[in-house]
Amino acid sequence: xxxxxxxxxxxxxxxxxxxxxxxxxxxxxxxxxxxxxxxxxxxxxxxxxxxxxxxxxxxxxxxxxxxxxxxxxxxxxxxxxxxxxxxxxxxxxxxxxxxxxxxxxxxxxxxxxxxxxxxxxxxxxxxxxxxxxxxxxxxxxxxxxxxxxxxxxxxxxxxxxxxxxxxxxxxxxxxxxxxxxxxxxxxxxxxxxxxxxxxxxxxxxxxxxxxxxxxxxxxxxxxxxxxxxxxxxxxxxxxxxxxxxxxxxxxxxxxxxxxxx
Length: 261
Ligand code: SAH
Hints:
The protein is of the alpha/beta class. It has two domains: about 5-115, Tetrapyrrole methylase, N-terminal domain (Cobalt-precorrin-4 Transmethylase, domain 1), CATH 3.40.1010.10; about 120-250, Methyltransferase, Cobalt-precorrin-4 Transmethylase, Domain 2 (2-Layer Sandwich). It contains ten helices and ten strands. Strand 2 (about 35), helix 2 (about 45) and strand 3 (about 55) form a beta-alpha-beta unit. The protein is elongated and about 60 Å long. It binds S-adenosyl-L-homocysteine (SAH).
């Protein structure tokens, strides 16, 4: 294939709020010729691309690999036609954003690629809650993890990764929050582990659900409309204890029904 003439920028759009974007990203959007953006990116952020053709390439559940190959091809084609091609992704492009597939495909086609980081959802959620994910004496490790398994991917044991971290941020997990809680408890996590589910972090529509892990394991499906993540760890103990000051925070809580059955 003929090498592209343009350069492709993988740009982090941040977690949602249009003003939570880097100056570098905003400048690139302002001079972009074409922008391929995820469905979740705020319209006001896309609107920063005043001179560009804008193309939504949001992938919904299912058909991911086909969609990804198609996006790779469109980026390569665009680089042959334009100087500045922006691939705008929610949060930080390098976390759970399929960035490596795009970087590899572009490099393989001889197209120059540059990455512009963004504020990832976990850090926006931490800011919203006013709770630091690391804390002296309580939390010296944070894990970014997803239980979601992609096409042809080995499942792996994400539960140990959560259990071994002082604080965990679970992406693409809130839709199965109950099942996840049950799995974690079955793998040995304490039922009094503090949990906060944050939806729409950084946006005016932000919601938070705070509860101990044992209760999450017995909860029904959480009523969520926007993107949401599950945060777990001792750093959230005060936040959770403020809502559940009673015995529910003890580690002797009975196991969820699904486990005792
Ligand atoms: N690259 C993105 C993550 C993409 S995966 C980043 O760095 O943030 C998509 C998942 O991110 C969602 O399923 C959800 O778990 C999380 N997410 C994205 N935006 C969010 C937001 N505003 N609030 C809470 N979680 C969010």
